């Protein structure tokens, strides 16, 4: 049985192979190593940045996106390996202090970059496809469950949820990315969110 730390290089290699085989969704491959996202400064009402995080706050709804650094553990060896290979890993917290339910569906979330890249977050089916050849007994895949946004998430009043969004690497020439979320419901009210980031690959100047 491998220890968690021993899985990281294996999954980094697996992720790199997955990117090469898929052509990074037709964009010619992603960065050769870890990728950093830095929130872009904004003066749009409701949006703010704090160190490496970006937040939206309005009427009791607060959504915070925190891009993980390459050496920042997610709690999953599989996700950490993907981050080491240049996948984008975002820890997202949705906090609801309203009297209504908040409904978030990751199917309406997209990451676009300034080289016309278009990626949706990986779901459990994607993780199964990537890891089935290397996962002994399904232990690593079991770590994924509950750690990523996969299905519709319903957050009741005075509750919060924190999971991860994982995207395939953006175009290697991209310098900016935007993550949009359509149809985030607070009760019957629909909100569309948009977060902008600068892309900083290892060894590349901002």
How would you portray this structure in words?
There is one protein chain. The chain has four helices and twelve strands. With 206 residues, the chain is of the alpha+beta class. It has one domain (4-23, 31-201). Strand 3 and strand 4 (61-67) form a beta hairpin. The radius of gyration is 17 Å and the shape is globular.
Number of helices: 4
Shape estimate: globular
Rounded mean pLDDT score = 82
Q: Quick one: biggest sheet? A: 7 strands, antiparallel
Distance between the termini: 41 Å
What is the radius of gyration? 17 Å
Please report which band the strand proportion falls in: under 5%, 5-15%, 15-25%, 25-35%, 35-45% or over 45%.
35-45%
Summary keywords:
206 residues, alpha+beta, seven-stranded antiparallel β-sheet, five-stranded antiparallel β-sheet, globular, disordered N terminus
What layout of secondary structure does this protein have?
Layout: H1 4-26, E1 35-39, E2 47-50, E3 53-58, E4 61-67, H2 77-84, E5 88-96, E6 102-104, E7 109-113, E8 118-119, H3 124-131, H4 139-144, E9 153-155, E10 159-167, E11 176-186, E12 189-201
Antiparallel strand pairs: 1-12, 2-3, 3-4, 4-5, 5-10, 6-9, 6-11, 7-8, 7-11, 11-12
What is shown here, in short?
This protein has helices spanning 4-26, 77-84, 124-131, 139-144, and strands at 35-39, 47-50, 53-58, 61-67, 88-96, 102-104, 109-113, 118-119, 153-155, 159-167, 176-186, 189-201.
